Amino acid sequence: MLECRREFNADFNAEYRNSHIPSSSFQKLILAFGSATQSLFDPSRGDMIATLGETTGRSALAFMKSKMEASSEGSTILRLRPRINSETVDLVGLSKMPEHTLGHVYYRFLEKNKVTPDSRPIVQFVDDVELAYVMQRYREVHDLVHAILGMPTNMLGEVTVKWVEGIQTRLPMCLGGGLFGAVRLAPKQRKKYVTTHLPWAIKTGFNAHFLMNVFYERRWDQPLVDLHRELNIIPLKTKKESKELTETKAPPLEIS
């Protein structure tokens, strides 16, 4: 196995203590209203979306934590509190892994979409450190979920992923992103959304195993097709991809 992990756990507790901003229920309500309004007008405001998630997600975070505690792999994640960023993940190592492994697919996603694992801010407004880590973990695996589902970072891809995440996590931020994000889709994207992406996202959200229970850092060398089978994910194939598969006469993929 190619080792692509530098430092397994940057001390989350210390970073959380430095960033945590205590707030009352009323203050969280004000923050939630303001961040929701700002996010609707400007979806590119990642800081506002983060604040919305933190101030409205307590019950969902408790649900997510219980799902992780019920899983051997999920409970290990909660115990070790690993982080995903450029200090803990050897991106150069991932780039050298065989194609179609999780590590290489994740690296290729980051490069193609010009995103970095360092773009996820530390949690500020969640008052329970254990729930704060669950939110942090959700943020840091978000790009991995994109890569696993084969969804780009355009509006259609983001809305599709938000539906999968919303169904699985129950986070109001995700469900709201799925509902209201669709309004901003271009006409061609809206057609794809209604006919293919939304039905697929809903089916995947309900049928796939809980994605927060995957210790991705220990699976970099796992073939993506095997991970799909394990998680009960059937990738969405676009017409272009289907045509390419036909032209290359690749054998059909059977996923149980």
UniProtKB/TrEMBL annotation:
Task: Give the record's keywords alphabetically.
Answer: Lyase, Membrane, Metal-binding, Mitochondrion, Mitochondrion inner membrane, Ubiquinone biosynthesis, Zinc
Pfam families this protein is in?
Answer: Coq4
Q: Name one GO cellular component term.
A: extrinsic component of mitochondrial inner membrane
MF terms from GO for this chain are: 4-hydroxy-3-methoxy-5-polyprenylbenzoate decarboxylase activity; zinc ion binding
Instruction: Tell me the compartments it is located in.
Output: Mitochondrion inner membrane
The protein's predominant localisation is: mitochondrion
Name its co-factor(s): Zn(2+)
**Assembly and oligomerization:** Component of a multi-subunit COQ enzyme complex.
**Protein family:** Belongs to the COQ4 family.
Name of this protein: Ubiquinone biosynthesis protein COQ4 homolog, mitochondrial
Lineage start? Eukaryota, Metazoa, Ecdysozoa, Arthropoda, Hexapoda
